[in-house]
Design goal:
β8 and β9 form a beta hairpin. The chain is of the alpha/beta class. The N terminus is likely disordered. The chain has a six-stranded mixed sheet. Strands 6-7-8-9-10 form a five-stranded mixed sheet, with helices on one face. The longest helix is centred in the C-terminal third of the chain and has 28 residues. The protein contains 15 helices and eleven strands.
Length: about 550
Protein backbone atom coordinates (compact mmCIF):
# COMPACT_ATOMS: atom_id res chain seq x y z
CA UNK A 1 0.00 0.00 0.00
CA UNK A 2 2.83 2.36 -0.71
CA UNK A 3 1.83 5.89 -1.61
CA UNK A 4 -1.16 6.02 0.71
CA UNK A 5 0.37 8.68 2.91
CA UNK A 6 2.26 10.55 0.21
CA UNK A 7 0.70 13.95 -0.24
CA UNK A 8 0.94 15.23 -3.77
CA UNK A 9 3.23 18.26 -3.96
CA UNK A 10 1.67 21.65 -3.76
CA UNK A 11 3.59 23.02 -6.77
CA UNK A 12 2.00 25.10 -9.44
CA UNK A 13 -1.67 24.28 -8.99
CA UNK A 14 -2.84 26.99 -11.31
CA UNK A 15 -5.93 29.11 -10.92
CA UNK A 16 -8.05 26.14 -9.84
CA UNK A 17 -5.73 25.49 -6.92
CA UNK A 18 -5.87 29.11 -5.82
CA UNK A 19 -9.65 29.09 -5.92
CA UNK A 20 -9.79 25.85 -3.93
CA UNK A 21 -7.48 27.33 -1.30
CA UNK A 22 -9.72 30.39 -1.00
CA UNK A 23 -12.80 28.16 -0.78
CA UNK A 24 -11.12 26.15 1.96
CA UNK A 25 -10.42 29.33 3.90
CA UNK A 26 -14.02 30.43 3.48
CA UNK A 27 -15.30 27.08 4.80
CA UNK A 28 -13.00 27.17 7.83
CA UNK A 29 -14.11 30.64 8.85
CA UNK A 30 -16.14 31.07 12.02
CA UNK A 31 -19.59 30.90 10.40
CA UNK A 32 -20.89 27.49 11.53
CA UNK A 33 -23.49 27.25 8.77
CA UNK A 34 -21.04 27.09 5.88
CA UNK A 35 -19.96 23.45 6.01
CA UNK A 36 -23.55 22.18 6.61
CA UNK A 37 -24.78 24.30 3.71
CA UNK A 38 -22.15 23.09 1.26
CA UNK A 39 -22.60 19.52 2.45
CA UNK A 40 -26.37 19.73 2.02
CA UNK A 41 -25.97 21.16 -1.47
CA UNK A 42 -23.57 18.37 -2.43
CA UNK A 43 -26.17 15.80 -1.40
CA UNK A 44 -29.01 17.65 -3.10
CA UNK A 45 -26.95 17.88 -6.27
CA UNK A 46 -26.49 14.12 -6.28
CA UNK A 47 -30.27 13.61 -6.51
CA UNK A 48 -30.21 15.13 -10.00
CA UNK A 49 -28.49 11.97 -11.24
CA UNK A 50 -31.49 9.72 -10.53
CA UNK A 51 -34.59 9.16 -12.66
CA UNK A 52 -36.33 10.91 -14.26
CA UNK A 53 -33.65 13.63 -14.60
CA UNK A 54 -30.76 11.14 -14.92
CA UNK A 55 -28.25 14.00 -15.18
CA UNK A 56 -25.14 11.96 -14.35
CA UNK A 57 -22.65 14.87 -14.79
CA UNK A 58 -23.93 16.20 -11.45
CA UNK A 59 -22.12 13.30 -9.77
CA UNK A 60 -18.80 14.68 -11.07
CA UNK A 61 -19.41 17.75 -8.93
CA UNK A 62 -21.13 16.18 -5.93
CA UNK A 63 -18.56 13.46 -5.16
CA UNK A 64 -15.44 15.64 -5.57
CA UNK A 65 -17.12 18.12 -3.24
CA UNK A 66 -17.56 15.35 -0.67
CA UNK A 67 -13.86 14.49 -0.93
CA UNK A 68 -13.04 18.17 -0.45
CA UNK A 69 -15.22 18.32 2.66
CA UNK A 70 -13.36 15.34 4.10
CA UNK A 71 -10.06 17.04 3.31
CA UNK A 72 -11.21 19.91 5.54
CA UNK A 73 -12.49 17.76 8.41
CA UNK A 74 -10.15 18.02 11.39
CA UNK A 75 -11.94 15.51 13.62
CA UNK A 76 -14.42 12.65 13.50
CA UNK A 77 -17.09 15.03 14.75
CA UNK A 78 -16.55 17.43 11.85
CA UNK A 79 -16.49 14.53 9.40
CA UNK A 80 -19.76 13.14 10.74
CA UNK A 81 -21.40 16.57 10.55
CA UNK A 82 -20.37 17.00 6.91
CA UNK A 83 -21.49 13.48 6.08
CA UNK A 84 -24.80 13.72 7.89
CA UNK A 85 -25.69 16.99 6.18
CA UNK A 86 -24.68 15.47 2.84
CA UNK A 87 -26.96 12.51 3.48
CA UNK A 88 -29.71 14.81 4.65
CA UNK A 89 -29.42 16.65 1.34
CA UNK A 90 -29.61 13.37 -0.62
CA UNK A 91 -32.67 12.03 1.14
CA UNK A 92 -34.66 15.12 2.08
CA UNK A 93 -34.54 16.30 -1.53
CA UNK A 94 -34.53 12.89 -3.19
CA UNK A 95 -37.43 11.43 -1.18
CA UNK A 96 -39.85 14.36 -1.34
CA UNK A 97 -42.16 12.14 -3.37
CA UNK A 98 -42.98 10.25 -0.16
CA UNK A 99 -44.77 13.37 1.07
CA UNK A 100 -47.36 12.99 -1.68
CA UNK A 101 -48.68 9.85 0.03
CA UNK A 102 -49.94 12.01 2.90
CA UNK A 103 -52.30 13.78 0.49
CA UNK A 104 -53.89 10.45 -0.41
CA UNK A 105 -55.32 9.55 2.99
CA UNK A 106 -57.46 11.22 5.61
CA UNK A 107 -56.45 9.27 8.72
CA UNK A 108 -52.98 10.88 8.85
CA UNK A 109 -52.78 14.70 8.96
CA UNK A 110 -51.08 16.29 5.96
CA UNK A 111 -49.11 18.51 8.33
CA UNK A 112 -47.10 15.43 9.36
CA UNK A 113 -45.70 14.95 5.84
CA UNK A 114 -42.68 17.29 6.23
CA UNK A 115 -41.86 15.81 9.62
CA UNK A 116 -42.03 12.25 8.27
CA UNK A 117 -39.72 13.08 5.36
CA UNK A 118 -37.29 14.92 7.63
CA UNK A 119 -37.29 12.09 10.18
CA UNK A 120 -36.68 9.42 7.53
CA UNK A 121 -33.99 11.56 5.89
CA UNK A 122 -32.31 12.13 9.23
CA UNK A 123 -32.12 8.40 9.90
CA UNK A 124 -30.90 7.53 6.39
CA UNK A 125 -28.30 10.32 6.64
CA UNK A 126 -26.69 8.43 9.53
CA UNK A 127 -25.29 5.93 7.02
CA UNK A 128 -23.51 8.64 5.04
CA UNK A 129 -22.39 10.29 8.27
CA UNK A 130 -20.91 6.94 9.28
CA UNK A 131 -19.16 6.63 5.92
CA UNK A 132 -17.58 10.05 6.43
CA UNK A 133 -16.40 9.20 9.96
CA UNK A 134 -14.75 5.97 8.88
CA UNK A 135 -13.18 7.66 5.86
CA UNK A 136 -11.80 10.44 8.07
CA UNK A 137 -10.29 7.94 10.50
CA UNK A 138 -8.37 6.28 7.62
CA UNK A 139 -7.85 9.44 5.56
CA UNK A 140 -4.73 10.14 3.54
CA UNK A 141 -3.71 13.19 1.55
CA UNK A 142 -2.71 11.50 -1.69
CA UNK A 143 -4.74 10.47 -4.71
CA UNK A 144 -5.57 7.09 -3.18
CA UNK A 145 -8.00 8.75 -0.78
CA UNK A 146 -10.55 8.53 -3.60
CA UNK A 147 -10.21 4.73 -3.63
CA UNK A 148 -10.74 4.67 0.12
CA UNK A 149 -13.85 6.84 -0.11
CA UNK A 150 -15.40 4.70 -2.87
CA UNK A 151 -14.85 1.52 -0.84
CA UNK A 152 -16.30 2.98 2.35
CA UNK A 153 -19.26 4.51 0.49
CA UNK A 154 -20.16 1.12 -1.01
CA UNK A 155 -19.90 -0.69 2.34
CA UNK A 156 -22.34 1.76 3.91
CA UNK A 157 -24.67 1.53 0.91
CA UNK A 158 -24.63 -2.22 1.44
CA UNK A 159 -25.46 -1.76 5.13
CA UNK A 160 -28.31 0.61 4.28
CA UNK A 161 -29.72 -1.97 1.89
CA UNK A 162 -29.89 -4.74 4.49
CA UNK A 163 -30.01 -3.45 8.06
CA UNK A 164 -33.36 -2.76 9.76
CA UNK A 165 -35.40 -4.19 6.83
CA UNK A 166 -33.19 -2.31 4.34
CA UNK A 167 -33.78 0.63 2.04
CA UNK A 168 -31.59 0.32 -1.10
CA UNK A 169 -32.95 3.47 -2.72
CA UNK A 170 -30.64 6.11 -4.26
CA UNK A 171 -27.70 3.74 -4.58
CA UNK A 172 -25.01 5.53 -6.55
CA UNK A 173 -25.11 2.87 -9.26
CA UNK A 174 -28.82 3.42 -9.85
CA UNK A 175 -28.08 6.75 -11.53
CA UNK A 176 -27.45 4.71 -14.69
CA UNK A 177 -31.00 3.28 -14.83
CA UNK A 178 -31.76 5.28 -17.98
CA UNK A 179 -28.26 4.84 -19.47
CA UNK A 180 -28.53 1.20 -20.49
CA UNK A 181 -25.01 0.64 -21.92
CA UNK A 182 -23.48 1.59 -18.55
CA UNK A 183 -26.22 -0.20 -16.61
CA UNK A 184 -25.18 -3.48 -18.28
CA UNK A 185 -22.12 -3.48 -15.99
CA UNK A 186 -24.50 -4.54 -13.20
CA UNK A 187 -24.82 -7.92 -14.94
CA UNK A 188 -21.13 -8.47 -14.11
CA UNK A 189 -20.86 -6.80 -10.72
CA UNK A 190 -24.40 -6.31 -9.33
CA UNK A 191 -25.66 -2.79 -8.72
CA UNK A 192 -23.35 -2.52 -5.70
CA UNK A 193 -20.26 -3.10 -7.82
CA UNK A 194 -21.54 -0.48 -10.24
CA UNK A 195 -21.99 1.87 -7.28
CA UNK A 196 -18.39 1.47 -6.17
CA UNK A 197 -17.09 2.05 -9.70
CA UNK A 198 -19.37 5.07 -10.15
CA UNK A 199 -18.15 6.76 -6.97
CA UNK A 200 -14.54 6.02 -7.87
CA UNK A 201 -14.93 7.56 -11.34
CA UNK A 202 -17.04 10.55 -10.31
CA UNK A 203 -14.82 11.49 -7.35
CA UNK A 204 -11.45 11.02 -9.06
CA UNK A 205 -11.18 14.48 -10.73
CA UNK A 206 -10.52 15.99 -7.29
CA UNK A 207 -6.97 14.59 -7.36
CA UNK A 208 -6.12 16.87 -10.29
CA UNK A 209 -7.17 20.06 -8.53
CA UNK A 210 -4.48 22.16 -6.88
CA UNK A 211 -1.68 19.62 -7.28
CA UNK A 212 1.02 18.93 -9.82
CA UNK A 213 0.32 15.96 -12.05
CA UNK A 214 2.14 12.85 -10.88
CA UNK A 215 1.73 9.38 -12.41
CA UNK A 216 -0.29 8.20 -9.39
CA UNK A 217 -2.74 11.11 -9.73
CA UNK A 218 -3.09 10.62 -13.47
CA UNK A 219 -3.61 6.89 -12.97
CA UNK A 220 -6.18 7.47 -10.23
CA UNK A 221 -8.29 9.40 -12.75
CA UNK A 222 -7.60 7.59 -16.00
CA UNK A 223 -7.85 3.96 -14.89
CA UNK A 224 -11.39 4.14 -13.39
CA UNK A 225 -12.61 6.27 -16.30
CA UNK A 226 -11.20 3.77 -18.78
CA UNK A 227 -12.84 0.89 -16.91
CA UNK A 228 -16.22 2.63 -16.94
CA UNK A 229 -15.82 3.59 -20.61
CA UNK A 230 -14.83 0.03 -21.53
CA UNK A 231 -17.83 -1.25 -19.59
CA UNK A 232 -20.13 1.14 -21.44
CA UNK A 233 -18.73 0.07 -24.81
CA UNK A 234 -19.14 -3.57 -23.85
CA UNK A 235 -22.68 -2.81 -22.71
CA UNK A 236 -23.50 -1.13 -26.01
CA UNK A 237 -22.12 -4.09 -27.92
CA UNK A 238 -24.08 -6.47 -25.71
CA UNK A 239 -27.32 -4.63 -26.44
CA UNK A 240 -26.56 -4.45 -30.15
CA UNK A 241 -25.77 -8.15 -30.43
CA UNK A 242 -28.88 -9.34 -28.58
CA UNK A 243 -32.33 -8.49 -29.86
CA UNK A 244 -35.35 -9.04 -27.67
CA UNK A 245 -36.75 -12.53 -28.14
CA UNK A 246 -40.29 -13.55 -27.20
CA UNK A 247 -42.23 -16.63 -26.20
CA UNK A 248 -45.09 -16.17 -28.65
CA UNK A 249 -47.17 -18.83 -26.91
CA UNK A 250 -47.56 -16.58 -23.87
CA UNK A 251 -49.58 -13.44 -24.58
CA UNK A 252 -49.88 -10.92 -21.75
CA UNK A 253 -52.46 -8.28 -21.03
CA UNK A 254 -51.62 -5.80 -18.27
CA UNK A 255 -54.53 -3.71 -17.00
CA UNK A 256 -53.82 -0.20 -15.73
CA UNK A 257 -57.11 1.23 -14.45
CA UNK A 258 -55.55 4.39 -12.97
CA UNK A 259 -57.71 4.34 -9.83
CA UNK A 260 -57.24 7.51 -7.77
CA UNK A 261 -55.64 6.52 -4.48
CA UNK A 262 -57.98 8.69 -2.42
CA UNK A 263 -60.94 6.80 -3.90
CA UNK A 264 -59.42 3.33 -3.93
CA UNK A 265 -60.70 2.12 -0.56
CA UNK A 266 -64.02 3.99 -0.39
CA UNK A 267 -66.51 1.13 0.22
CA UNK A 268 -69.19 2.48 -2.13
CA UNK A 269 -66.70 2.66 -5.02
CA UNK A 270 -64.97 -0.70 -4.68
CA UNK A 271 -67.36 -2.48 -7.05
CA UNK A 272 -66.96 0.35 -9.58
CA UNK A 273 -63.17 -0.11 -9.45
CA UNK A 274 -63.57 -3.83 -10.09
CA UNK A 275 -65.91 -3.20 -13.02
CA UNK A 276 -63.46 -0.71 -14.54
CA UNK A 277 -60.76 -3.40 -14.50
CA UNK A 278 -63.24 -5.82 -16.10
CA UNK A 279 -64.14 -3.42 -18.93
CA UNK A 280 -60.49 -2.76 -19.73
CA UNK A 281 -59.72 -6.48 -19.62
CA UNK A 282 -62.38 -7.27 -22.25
CA UNK A 283 -61.07 -4.51 -24.53
CA UNK A 284 -64.43 -4.24 -26.32
CA UNK A 285 -64.73 -7.95 -27.07
CA UNK A 286 -68.20 -8.97 -28.34
CA UNK A 287 -67.83 -12.21 -26.40
CA UNK A 288 -66.99 -10.41 -23.19
CA UNK A 289 -63.65 -12.20 -23.11
CA UNK A 290 -59.99 -11.25 -22.86
CA UNK A 291 -59.59 -12.85 -26.28
CA UNK A 292 -56.29 -14.40 -27.27
CA UNK A 293 -54.71 -13.64 -23.88
CA UNK A 294 -52.83 -16.34 -22.01
CA UNK A 295 -52.14 -14.26 -18.87
CA UNK A 296 -54.41 -11.47 -17.70
CA UNK A 297 -52.57 -9.43 -15.06
CA UNK A 298 -54.03 -6.84 -12.69
CA UNK A 299 -51.83 -4.77 -10.33
CA UNK A 300 -51.29 -4.76 -6.58
CA UNK A 301 -54.53 -4.66 -4.55
CA UNK A 302 -56.55 -4.27 -7.75
CA UNK A 303 -59.31 -6.21 -5.97
CA UNK A 304 -60.25 -4.68 -2.63
CA UNK A 305 -62.14 -7.66 -1.22
CA UNK A 306 -60.39 -9.75 1.45
CA UNK A 307 -62.56 -12.77 0.49
CA UNK A 308 -61.38 -12.91 -3.13
CA UNK A 309 -59.36 -16.09 -2.50
CA UNK A 310 -62.30 -17.91 -0.90
CA UNK A 311 -64.12 -20.67 -2.76
CA UNK A 312 -67.37 -18.71 -2.67
CA UNK A 313 -65.95 -15.53 -4.24
CA UNK A 314 -68.37 -14.19 -6.84
CA UNK A 315 -65.82 -11.62 -7.99
CA UNK A 316 -63.26 -14.31 -8.79
CA UNK A 317 -65.91 -16.29 -10.66
CA UNK A 318 -66.84 -13.18 -12.69
CA UNK A 319 -63.22 -12.51 -13.52
CA UNK A 320 -62.61 -16.12 -14.55
CA UNK A 321 -65.52 -15.91 -17.03
CA UNK A 322 -63.38 -13.60 -19.16
CA UNK A 323 -60.69 -16.24 -19.62
CA UNK A 324 -60.46 -18.69 -22.47
CA UNK A 325 -59.77 -22.31 -21.60
CA UNK A 326 -56.08 -22.73 -20.78
CA UNK A 327 -55.68 -19.06 -19.79
CA UNK A 328 -55.02 -17.61 -16.36
CA UNK A 329 -55.57 -14.43 -14.40
CA UNK A 330 -53.22 -12.96 -11.81
CA UNK A 331 -54.18 -10.13 -9.50
CA UNK A 332 -53.14 -8.46 -6.31
CA UNK A 333 -55.62 -8.60 -3.46
CA UNK A 334 -55.63 -8.36 0.33
CA UNK A 335 -56.65 -11.50 2.18
CA UNK A 336 -57.08 -12.70 5.74
CA UNK A 337 -56.46 -15.92 7.60
CA UNK A 338 -57.66 -17.09 11.02
CA UNK A 339 -55.02 -18.93 13.03
CA UNK A 340 -55.06 -19.75 16.77
CA UNK A 341 -57.85 -17.30 17.46
CA UNK A 342 -56.06 -14.49 15.60
CA UNK A 343 -56.90 -12.86 12.31
CA UNK A 344 -53.91 -12.10 10.09
CA UNK A 345 -54.08 -9.86 7.03
CA UNK A 346 -51.77 -10.21 4.02
CA UNK A 347 -50.94 -8.19 0.93
CA UNK A 348 -51.23 -11.01 -1.57
CA UNK A 349 -51.25 -12.13 -5.17
CA UNK A 350 -53.39 -14.96 -6.51
CA UNK A 351 -53.44 -16.86 -9.80
CA UNK A 352 -56.46 -18.81 -11.07
CA UNK A 353 -57.80 -20.46 -14.24
CA UNK A 354 -60.91 -20.06 -16.40
CA UNK A 355 -62.94 -22.07 -13.87
CA UNK A 356 -61.95 -19.79 -11.03
CA UNK A 357 -59.77 -22.47 -9.45
CA UNK A 358 -56.81 -21.11 -7.48
CA UNK A 359 -53.44 -22.29 -8.77
CA UNK A 360 -51.19 -20.22 -6.55
CA UNK A 361 -51.18 -17.68 -3.78
CA UNK A 362 -48.28 -15.53 -2.64
CA UNK A 363 -48.14 -13.34 0.48
CA UNK A 364 -45.79 -10.38 0.38
CA UNK A 365 -42.66 -11.09 2.41
CA UNK A 366 -40.95 -7.68 2.56
CA UNK A 367 -43.38 -5.13 3.94
CA UNK A 368 -42.93 -1.37 3.78
CA UNK A 369 -42.06 0.06 7.22
CA UNK A 370 -44.67 2.59 8.38
CA UNK A 371 -46.65 1.86 5.21
CA UNK A 372 -47.73 -1.76 5.61
CA UNK A 373 -46.55 -2.36 9.14
CA UNK A 374 -45.35 -0.24 12.04
CA UNK A 375 -42.08 -1.24 13.71
CA UNK A 376 -42.47 -1.51 17.48
CA UNK A 377 -46.26 -1.43 17.14
CA UNK A 378 -46.68 -3.03 20.56
CA UNK A 379 -44.86 -0.04 22.04
CA UNK A 380 -47.30 2.36 20.36
CA UNK A 381 -50.20 0.34 21.76
CA UNK A 382 -48.66 0.25 25.24
CA UNK A 383 -48.30 4.04 25.46
CA UNK A 384 -51.79 4.68 24.13
CA UNK A 385 -50.92 5.60 20.54
CA UNK A 386 -52.57 2.62 18.86
CA UNK A 387 -54.50 4.93 16.52
CA UNK A 388 -51.23 6.37 15.24
CA UNK A 389 -49.79 2.90 14.74
CA UNK A 390 -52.87 1.83 12.79
CA UNK A 391 -53.39 -1.68 11.45
CA UNK A 392 -50.61 -3.72 9.91
CA UNK A 393 -50.22 -6.51 7.40
CA UNK A 394 -48.47 -9.72 8.35
CA UNK A 395 -45.56 -10.83 6.20
CA UNK A 396 -45.48 -14.02 4.16
CA UNK A 397 -43.19 -16.91 4.99
CA UNK A 398 -40.90 -16.96 1.96
CA UNK A 399 -40.49 -16.01 -1.68
CA UNK A 400 -41.91 -18.37 -4.28
CA UNK A 401 -41.44 -19.56 -7.82
CA UNK A 402 -44.89 -20.15 -9.31
CA UNK A 403 -45.49 -22.48 -12.24
CA UNK A 404 -48.75 -22.30 -14.20
CA UNK A 405 -49.40 -24.97 -16.87
CA UNK A 406 -48.09 -23.83 -20.23
CA UNK A 407 -46.40 -20.73 -18.79
CA UNK A 408 -42.74 -20.30 -17.80
CA UNK A 409 -42.37 -20.22 -14.02
CA UNK A 410 -42.22 -16.76 -12.46
CA UNK A 411 -41.27 -15.12 -9.18
CA UNK A 412 -43.85 -12.62 -7.90
CA UNK A 413 -42.56 -9.42 -6.30
CA UNK A 414 -45.15 -7.09 -4.81
CA UNK A 415 -44.34 -3.37 -5.02
CA UNK A 416 -41.32 -2.58 -2.81
CA UNK A 417 -39.88 -6.11 -3.10
CA UNK A 418 -38.46 -5.40 -6.58
CA UNK A 419 -35.91 -2.90 -5.23
CA UNK A 420 -33.85 -5.55 -3.39
CA UNK A 421 -31.01 -7.14 -5.40
CA UNK A 422 -29.86 -10.70 -4.88
CA UNK A 423 -33.22 -12.10 -3.74
CA UNK A 424 -34.23 -14.05 -6.86
CA UNK A 425 -34.06 -17.87 -6.62
CA UNK A 426 -31.15 -19.50 -8.47
CA UNK A 427 -30.38 -23.00 -9.68
CA UNK A 428 -33.33 -25.32 -10.29
CA UNK A 429 -35.73 -22.79 -8.75
CA UNK A 430 -34.67 -20.01 -11.12
CA UNK A 431 -37.81 -18.53 -12.70
CA UNK A 432 -38.30 -17.69 -16.35
CA UNK A 433 -39.45 -14.15 -15.57
CA UNK A 434 -40.24 -11.74 -12.75
CA UNK A 435 -43.71 -10.33 -12.08
CA UNK A 436 -43.86 -7.02 -10.24
CA UNK A 437 -47.38 -5.89 -9.32
CA UNK A 438 -47.43 -2.49 -7.69
CA UNK A 439 -49.52 0.53 -6.79
CA UNK A 440 -47.51 3.73 -7.14
CA UNK A 441 -50.70 5.79 -6.98
CA UNK A 442 -49.60 6.91 -3.52
CA UNK A 443 -46.90 9.05 -5.10
CA UNK A 444 -48.74 10.81 -7.91
CA UNK A 445 -46.82 12.56 -10.69
CA UNK A 446 -43.53 12.67 -8.77
CA UNK A 447 -40.09 11.14 -9.27
CA UNK A 448 -40.93 8.09 -7.13
CA UNK A 449 -42.66 5.92 -9.76
CA UNK A 450 -39.88 6.54 -12.30
CA UNK A 451 -37.19 5.61 -9.80
CA UNK A 452 -39.15 2.50 -8.82
CA UNK A 453 -39.27 1.51 -12.50
CA UNK A 454 -35.52 2.10 -12.84
CA UNK A 455 -34.75 -0.22 -9.94
CA UNK A 456 -36.94 -2.91 -11.54
CA UNK A 457 -34.85 -2.51 -14.70
CA UNK A 458 -31.70 -3.38 -12.72
CA UNK A 459 -33.24 -6.65 -11.53
CA UNK A 460 -33.74 -7.65 -15.18
CA UNK A 461 -30.12 -6.80 -16.02
CA UNK A 462 -28.64 -8.54 -12.97
CA UNK A 463 -30.67 -11.72 -13.33
CA UNK A 464 -30.98 -11.99 -17.12
CA UNK A 465 -34.74 -12.26 -16.67
CA UNK A 466 -37.59 -10.23 -18.19
CA UNK A 467 -39.66 -8.15 -15.79
CA UNK A 468 -43.40 -7.73 -16.25
CA UNK A 469 -44.55 -4.70 -14.26
CA UNK A 470 -48.26 -4.10 -13.69
CA UNK A 471 -48.96 -0.79 -11.94
CA UNK A 472 -52.29 0.73 -10.93
CA UNK A 473 -51.43 4.26 -12.09
CA UNK A 474 -48.28 3.50 -14.09
CA UNK A 475 -45.70 2.98 -15.18
CA UNK A 476 -46.73 -0.48 -16.40
CA UNK A 477 -44.00 -1.99 -18.53
CA UNK A 478 -42.59 -5.06 -20.22
CA UNK A 479 -38.81 -5.11 -19.71
CA UNK A 480 -36.61 -7.61 -21.51
CA UNK A 481 -33.70 -9.55 -20.03
CA UNK A 482 -31.25 -6.74 -20.84
CA UNK A 483 -33.28 -4.01 -19.13
CA UNK A 484 -34.83 -2.60 -22.31
CA UNK A 485 -38.41 -1.37 -21.96
CA UNK A 486 -40.06 -2.97 -24.97
CA UNK A 487 -43.57 -1.73 -24.18
CA UNK A 488 -45.02 0.57 -21.54
CA UNK A 489 -48.08 2.51 -20.44
CA UNK A 490 -47.21 5.86 -18.91
CA UNK A 491 -47.94 7.44 -15.57
CA UNK A 492 -51.49 8.65 -14.87
CA UNK A 493 -52.96 6.82 -17.86
CA UNK A 494 -55.76 4.29 -18.09
CA UNK A 495 -55.56 1.42 -20.56
CA UNK A 496 -54.16 -2.01 -21.32
CA UNK A 497 -50.75 -3.21 -22.39
CA UNK A 498 -50.64 -6.27 -24.65
CA UNK A 499 -47.39 -8.03 -25.41
CA UNK A 500 -45.88 -11.48 -25.80
CA UNK A 501 -43.62 -12.52 -22.95
CA UNK A 502 -39.89 -11.83 -23.52
CA UNK A 503 -37.68 -14.84 -22.94
CA UNK A 504 -34.97 -15.24 -20.34
CA UNK A 505 -31.34 -15.48 -21.34
CA UNK A 506 -28.81 -17.99 -20.06
CA UNK A 507 -28.43 -17.71 -16.28
CA UNK A 508 -25.35 -15.80 -15.10
CA UNK A 509 -22.41 -18.00 -14.23
CA UNK A 510 -22.39 -16.53 -10.73
CA UNK A 511 -25.45 -15.41 -8.80
CA UNK A 512 -26.14 -11.76 -8.03
CA UNK A 513 -25.78 -12.53 -4.34
CA UNK A 514 -22.30 -13.94 -4.93
CA UNK A 515 -21.29 -10.86 -6.95
CA UNK A 516 -22.53 -8.64 -4.15
CA UNK A 517 -20.45 -10.56 -1.63
CA UNK A 518 -17.36 -10.31 -3.84
CA UNK A 519 -17.85 -6.54 -4.18
CA UNK A 520 -18.27 -6.21 -0.43
CA UNK A 521 -15.18 -8.33 0.23
CA UNK A 522 -13.04 -6.27 -2.16
CA UNK A 523 -14.15 -3.02 -0.53
CA UNK A 524 -13.45 -4.41 2.93
CA UNK A 525 -9.99 -5.49 1.77
CA UNK A 526 -9.30 -1.95 0.53
CA UNK A 527 -10.37 -0.58 3.90
CA UNK A 528 -8.21 -3.15 5.68
CA UNK A 529 -5.21 -2.09 3.59
CA UNK A 530 -5.71 1.54 4.59
CA UNK A 531 -6.14 0.50 8.23
CA UNK A 532 -2.83 -1.38 8.18
CA UNK A 533 -1.12 1.60 6.55
CA UNK A 534 -2.54 3.91 9.22
CA UNK A 535 -1.24 1.67 12.03
CA UNK A 536 2.18 1.59 10.42
CA UNK A 537 2.26 5.37 10.15
CA UNK A 538 1.40 5.76 13.80
CA UNK A 539 3.91 3.20 15.00
CA UNK A 540 6.80 4.15 12.72
CA UNK A 541 9.56 6.21 14.40
Amino acid sequence: MQGMNDAAPQGSGGMAGVKMARFSGWLQAKAVWRVPLISFLAGALLTMTFSPLSFFPAAFVAFPLMIFLLDQARSAREAFSAGWWTGFGVFSVGLTWIGHSFTQQDNVPLVLAPFAILALSGVMALYIGGAFILSQRLWVKGPLRVLLFAAVWMVFEFARGFLFTGFPWHLAGSMWADWLPVAQIASLTSIYGLSALTVLVAASPIVLVGRSLKPLAIGMVSVPVLILAAGALWGQARLGANETEYDLSVSLRLVQANINQREKWIPSLIDDHFNRHMRLSRDGSDRGKAEGIKLLIWPEAAVQRETFDRESSILRWRMSRMLDFGSYAITGTPRYQRTSGQVKFYNSLVAFNSRGQLYARYDKVRLVPFGEYVPFQSLFNMIGLSALAGSSFDHGEQSQTIALPGVPAFTPLICYEIIFPGTIPVGEDRPGWLLNVTNDGWFGLTNGPYQHLGLARFRAIEEGLPVVRSANTGVSAIIDSFGRTVSSLGLDQSGILDSPLPTAIEPPKYSTGFKMMVTLALCLMVMLGFSVAMVRRKTSP
